[in-house]
Design brief:
Chain A is mostly helical and 325 residues long. Chain A is built from 13 helices and no strands. Chain A has one domain: Orthogonal Bundle (MetI-like fold), CATH 1.10.3720. Classes of the chains: A mainly alpha (325), B mainly alpha (294).
Chain lengths: 325, 294
């Protein structure tokens, strides 16, 4: 029975795999030649070859593409460094601040002989990485405050934190993004306007903070009561107790679920497409509007899926390794 | 804090006045003036009110969410059981499925399914016919109903039960994506039942399948139900991505209305109120169900 199942399943998988390889590799067109693509039976990877600069960097000035490329590498290095347990020290905070400042200088320019590039022109992979990195970096401290506030003894603070967390978690992200893109401008005095990218970033930070806060709260709840009592017995004040006894332990416990939340958030940044920001998915979508290359959506979105998968799968392997310890 | 709130409100009122937008929900009774692709359980025309349009959107949200919840539960449970199956190949294939689905954004998957349907299926005149009377085309999938079979008229089919490409892509995307998460929940639930329970069932002479059905699953259900609730909620919230592929759900209709009338605050308030109500009702129902299980 078991063998029969394996055999049938094996044949089905082999057939599907063969069909896929035939389409994706054997009959595929790899050169950026749209006529060859129209004539071909298989996939048109030439589309990606033709558009890869636009997909990766959006409308950033062509001869300046090294800047977002370098910024992306720096950002990934920062993340890789933060993944090591031996680097979980206080100086990780100033390191991130320094790293993000360097990235800001690289992207905006205007100093050190770099031409100024306004952020309306940022796009592609770096925008996805920036939205998620700044989102996490700023949402994380906020989420700790929210989680502490939710467990606070002060009823007003507790009610505000619970209300905020439950409201954000109860509605779809897209409604929060709509709020940032169409409602936020109404709150500002006449003549003041906040850039679209920044508005979306604020929405993403608030969204991430609510979800991260629940994970941090899980970590806080896992700390045995004795730890709180011992800290109280030592005569520590609230912030001393929280900063030196409770949080260091709670955050360590919460790291694997935090990574899972970060993966979810990284995927969710793709929703900025709906309010028209040029992230990785949007540059792919816009590339498809070129009449010479329209109709290759299947290839385009498979490519997008692979890029996102590479990032998310790396993070989930990391989170699993942490859990096993 | 009150000062900040007062400052924001006064700014907003000044802005609304400058843009000549009357705040309040009176606009809901004005004529909508736009058509909607699909309106289940009701008749709708462009001459109807905005309120009616929102009702159509809500019906579409319910339609795709309910169908999605039923189908994803079945698919997710099946894959979850495959993840703990004895057959190594079956296990490996389902593991690969779960890993791939969970690590690719749902929006990318929705775009993919939509592109697959609209780009690779033939136009209606050359529609594929996998079963007699069932037609697959880039304008949708058509099933025969008793007394009404789909017939090709001009460039599209009429009659029978039509599933639009937008609905099909959204449903397939939501179901296959959420099923990966449900599969992991089912697997964790099955593994949470202690080994002794299973061994005792085998000792009583039950087969693997019978032991799973009568001994393991009933106990696993207690672990499975609470996280399952949040997956149902996620599916319902994720159905709002419909706006990206043009399925007229609540968010998509509300977005059109905001663009037409400029009533952003009211439109977003409606979306949020509806989703909060759905969220709270589903969690209340699941809490009740969970309490009954124990």
């Amino acid at each position: 029975m078991n063998r029969l199942l394996s055999a049938v399943l094996g044949v089905v998988i082999a057939f599907l795999a063969w069909k896929f390889i035939d389409w994706a590799l054997l009959h595929a067109v790899w050169q950026p030649d749209s006529k060859a693509c129209r004539a071909a039976q298989g996939a048109c990877w030439g589309f990606i070859a033709e558009k890869h600069r636009f997909i990766l960097f959006g409308t950033y000035p062509y001869e300046q593409h090294w800047r977002p490329a370098l910024a992306s590498i720096l950002l990934l290095l920062l993340w890789a460094l933060s993944a090591w347990r031996m680097f979980w020290r206080w100086w990780l905070v100033p390191l991130w601040l320094a790293g993000l400042s360097v990235i800001g200088i690289l992207m905006w320019g205007g100093v050190l002989g770099l031409p100024y590039v306004e952020n309306q022109r940022w796009g592609g992979l770096i925008l996805t990485l920036l939205l998620s990195s700044f989102g996490i970096a700023l949402a994380f401290p906020l989420s700790i405050l929210l989680a502490l506030g939710r467990r606070s003894d002060l009823p007003v603070i507790q009610a505000l934190c619970v209300g905020f967390i439950e409201l954000i978690r109860g509605v779809p992200l897209i409604s929060i993004l709509f709020m940032a893109s169409v409602m936020l401008p109404l709150f500002l005095p006449a003549g003041v306007s906040i850039d679209k990218l920044l508005r979306a970033q604020i929405a993403l930070i608030l969204f991430a903070a609510a979800y991260l806060a629940e994970v941090v709260r899980g970590g806080l709840q896992a700390i045995p009561k004795e730890q709180y009592e011992a800290a109280d017995a030592l005569g520590l004040a609230y912030w001393q107790k929280t900063g030196t006894v409770i949080l260091p332990q709670a955050l360590r416990i919460a790291v694997p679920p935090l990574v899972n939340t970060i993966i979810g958030f990284f995927k969710d940044t793709s929703l900025v497409v709906i309010i028209g920001l040029f992230d990785l998915l949007q540059t792919i979508k816009v590339s498809l509007q070129d009449p010479a290359w329209s109709g290759y959506g299947v290839e385009a979105y498979l490519f997008a899926a692979l890029v996102y998968f590479a990032f998310c799968f790396a993070m989930s392997l990391y989170s699993r390794r942490l859990e096993r310890r | 804090m009150l000062g900040v709130a007062w400052y924001l409100v006064s700014n907003t009122l000044a802005n609304l006045e400058a843009r000549r937008i009357a705040s309040g929900f009176a606009f809901l009774w004005r004529e909508a003036g736009f058509e909607i692709g699909e309106a289940p359980f009701q008749r709708y025309s462009a001459a109807d009110t905005y309120l009616k349009a929102l009702a159509v959107g809500l019906a579409n949200t319910f339609k795709v969410s309910l169908a999605g919840i039923v189908l994803t539960t079945v698919l997710g449970a099946a894959i979850g059981l495959f993840l703990v199956a004895a057959n190594r190949l079956l296990k490996a294939v389902s593991r690969a499925y779960v890993e791939f689905m969970r690590n690719v954004p749902l929006l990318v998957q929705l775009f993919f399914w939509y592109a697959l349907i609209t780009e690779t299926l033939p136009p209606p005149p050359q529609a594929l016919q996998p079963l007699p009377g069932v037609f697959l085309s880039n304008r949708g999938i058509f099933f025969p109903l008793p007394g009404s079979a789909p017939v090709l008229e001009g460039f599209n089919f009429s009659g029978g039960l039509a599933i639009t490409p937008e609905f099909a892509a959204l449903l397939v995307g939501l179901v296959t994506y959420t099923a990966a998460f449900i599969a992991e929940i089912v697997r964790a639930g099955v593994l949470s039942v202690s080994r002794g329970q299973r061994e005792a069932a085998y000792a009583l002479g039950l087969t693997r399948a019978l032991a799973m059905r009568h001994v393991v699953l009933p106990q696993a259900l207690r672990v499975i139900v609470p996280p399952l609730t949040s997956q149902y909620l996620n599916l319902t919230k994720n159905s709002s991505l419909a706006v990206a592929i043009g399925y007229p759900d609540l968010v998509s209709i509300a977005n059109t209305i905001i663009n037409q009338t400029g009533q952003a605050i009211e439109g977003i308030a409606i979306i949020m109120a509806v989703y909060l109500t759905i969220s709270l009702s589903i969690s209340a129902f699941m809490n009740w169900y969970n309490a009954r299980l124990k």
